[in-house]
Amino acid sequence: MYDGSTAPARGAGRALGALAILASFGLVFAACGTNNKNNNGSAGAGASAVQAPAVSAAASVGGTLTVWAMGNEGVELKKVADAFMKDNPGTTVNVTPVDWGQAVAKLQTAIAGHQTPDVSQMGTDMMGQFAATGALEPVPANFQKDAFFESAWNTNIVNGTVSGVRWYVETRLLYYRKDIAEKAGITNPPATWDDLEAAAKVMKDKGGAKWGIALGTKNWQEYLPFLWSNGGAIPEGQGKFTLNSPQAVEALTVYQSFFKDGLTPKSVPEGFDITPAFVSGTHPMFFSGPWHIGLLDKAGGADFASKWALAPIPKKVSSTSFVGGGNLVVYKDSKNKDLAWKFVQYLTDPKTQVGWYNQVTDLPAVTAAWDDPKLKDDKNVAMFGEQLKSTKAQPAIPTWSEVSTAINDALEKMTTRSLDPQAAADQMQKAAESIGMGS
Amino acid sequence: MTVPALAQRGVRAEPAKTVSSATGPSLREDLVGWAFAAPFVILFGLFLAFPIVASLLLSFTSFGLSDLQNPIGATFVGLDNYAKLLGDKTFWTALFNTFYFVVVGVPVTLAIGLVIASALDRGVRRFRTAFRVGYYLPVITSIVAIAVVWRFLLNPDVGLVNLVLGAVGIKGPAWLADPVLAMPSIIAMAVWRNLGFAMVVFLAGMQSIPTQLYEAASIDGAGRWQAFRHVTIPMLRPTILFMTVITTIGYLQLFEEPFVMTGGGPLDKTLSVTMYMYQQGFTFFHQGYASALAYVLFLIVAIVAFFQFKFLRSDDA
After folding, report:
1. Under a CB-based contact definition with an 8 Å cutoff, are residues A294 and A357 in contact?
2. A133–B66 C-beta distance less than 8 A
3. Which CATH class for the A25-171+322-392 domain?
4. The domain defined by B87-316 carries CATH number 3.90.650.10
5. β-pairing verdict for A157-158 and A161-162
6. Which of A157, A361, B120, B173 is most buried (most C-beta within 10 Å)?
7. Distance between terminal CA atoms of chain B?
8. Top-level class of domain A173-321+397-435
9. CB burial class (10 A; 0-12, 13-18, 19+) of residue B170?
10. Structural domain spans, chain A
11. What is the pLDDT of residues A223-271, one digit of tens each?
12. Which residues of B touch A134 (CB under 8 A)?
């Protein structure tokens, strides 16, 4: 249900490493929140979103926090919380792991009963919904937009208020089989839409692969990069839906062509796993996030790493990928907001972000963390970092789960039932308009 | 009303304790009775009666995300949710799918259950218990586990079903991903899972049919089939009625199978009313609308059960 946030379990947590002790934490909080209050409802580009005044948390802030985190993060966060407690005597941070499958229902119940944790992780596609409950505390001015990837920061702006802080990011790249491509006579990674189509064709015809590429029949996350790279929009902030723009129709036409030309299967079984299919070579290309690096290493063995490579999202007008990941939010019902924000600040400190990457391979949302050699010198990871500079996300509107379902429905009709791209675009637009933006 | 009644009972109970049970319980016995019933009554009230009433009220509101922390403030919209439902294409699709599942699934489940029960009753003598356990096991196995396993079995590329078909030269279809075959695949699984319960109930019913009836029938020259047709079936009518109603009510609430196996797809072909209700209530958080859906489903179940009783009963008379 929450494809954006339920990334498969990443590589097992490595040792936390030498997590530097941040003794002078209080200094970071000395920020002043003067000019962050220029109130303006329209936050399309996130230029002037509302933030709360900076919290003036002294270094001595103490007390107890309850933190809910999901999936693998929920299991691993305890180690970071321990380090935080060591740096901040007198504080207790209790981490409760929550299963992704129950996360939404559990949080909704907690909010309805005013029994929320102080801090929780939140999938980026859940932000619109949960901000609409009115249970999230606006983010104080201690957190600066410039420190984060811009598109990642913007997913936290709901109705003009910054309601969450980005914790980690993920984006999608093209995974392709270098050996099959070379066999088919392709030496350069597919850089444009035309390249991608040509590569899919020859890898199937001459490379010996069963298919050319694996594309989702009903997956908005795979379609949107095509839309964005063609100059189209959903849009990403407030405004009017533009899902049937000429750019969208063109993107849909190209997306559909892979299905029409038999380059990708029209019927994908529920629970299909791309990893073994890519390793065996039946599906020589697919789009996915950073977690697939580890999965491929595991499934393909030692010598498989030389057989595949990463490429940016193929370019049309631009090369724009989807940015997902996880946020941190603080709840209005929290009894200890100062400490809650201090913990969030700790988690988004560049040093903690690097340590967190080493521990669970979650990519840092804070750009400064990318200067670390660990990230900079890994060719594959660095490529994700590069793509992150050109990404967009779904709009943070309460109705997104409905709109995305409508997009998926139209996509499915187009990919499996040969619905005309223009008709599919019109269907998306009509459905989205009747659902509305929820505010 | 209670005060004079209780006083009366108290007075009566005093002189003749031995007859108190014949004339009605004493106050003390009343209290003891309530105390024993209390755990059930409290749980029933808290987790069943209250939600039933609350969701009826919810169905007249536009209860959504922003009302979560202040439920009393939800906007009253009268019958708007119900009116909207009538014009909701997805609802009609879900209703059609649900009826497809019931209309095909219930008779098939009961028919196969009946056949197996009578085989175990009249034919198979050895290993009867083993068969009974075997057929009943799926009923008590977690539905989610079963659905996951069936999803593997029906996988078009590596599933056992298509491997077997492939071995005899048939290229198996993509069962669950095929819009035409998805619902029949789910029905097949539901039948397999539920026929054990039908079998056990039918078998119990059959074993309570007096053997004299079969003896009389065989003296009259009735064969196996005629005995089944003219003795077993009429004698089993109340059991069949019971099973039809129970199975129909259960099947009308189809949820876990498509939820795990298909997610309602492909193209909404396996989306059931309950799944749509879940989607509206917990994914989109239109709790008012979802409550209206729940009450419409309740109404449908009540109507269907009413007619089943009426028709199957009148046949009996």
Report:
1. no
2. yes
3. alpha beta
4. no
5. antiparallel
6. A157
7. 42
8. alpha beta
9. exposed
10. 25-171+322-392, 173-321+397-435
11. 999 999 999 998 877 788 999 999 999 999 999 999 999 999 888 877 7
12. 66, 68-69
